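FIELD: query
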Amino acid sequence: MLYGFGAKSEKNCGRCSATAALLAGVPGLQSALFSIIDPGYRIPAHRGVTKGIIRAHLGLKVPAERDRCFMRVGDRRVVWREGNCVVFEDSFEHEVQNDTDESRAVLLFDFDRPMRPFGRLLHRTAIWALRHSPYFRDAKRNVAHWEDRFEQSYAAMEASLR
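FIELD: result
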């Protein structure tokens, strides 16, 4: 997790400084993370929380049999290509399936959908409410806990290599 509902993870952005610098140029950036799907894994159908979010997946590592690693958005089936983006409105039902023997990795990032003033006001109010909800506080605490565990594991690995 690099960003969540506009909140920046300083530690993770520091670890991925080139990616964070590029993401800083995305207007209205809300969330950003590396999404890695293992072989045989499936993410069930779901929808985003608001129509005010546009989601992008930048293909980083795509299985050779990319037709067997796909996402369904609404009634469309899409596949990733390394270096290309798949962009869609997050409120459409979508699911992911990886029926290959390889992992798939994308840089997933969300940004504000261009809207008229009243739509922007509603969207910003919804995001403000989410950022002040127990859901967001729990997620932020979980990310911080994961970052601490990652740092401890990384330090232990480095110590064992010395």
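FIELD: remark
The longest strand covers residues 29-37.
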